[in-house]
Amino acid sequence: MSWVYLLFAGISEIVWSTAMKLSNGFSKIGWAIITVVGLITSMLCLLQAVKHLSFSLAYPIWTGIGAVGSVIVGVALFHDKFSNATWFFVVLLIIAIIGIKITAGE
Length: 106
What we know:
The protein is mostly helical. Helix content is 82%, strand content 0%. It has one domain (2-104).
């Protein structure tokens, strides 16, 4: 169940960071509320995950899910453009997240 919490924490990280961008500096109250709710949800899920997973495992996976997800959202919703070199490093980040999970032994 800890892995489910960690996955949901990472997804919530993507939600709140996207909503923060859409809130236009917190001037759009609906998006600002989603930002705060997403942030709280992300933290609470991370808290549940680290009850049974080591922090040194959970935290980099959580931030990695958020980082990769935010890149994907940036490209899909905000039309961010990245070079092939940047995509190479995003792929390396995904490989690193998987590697941390596989080698941590939890």
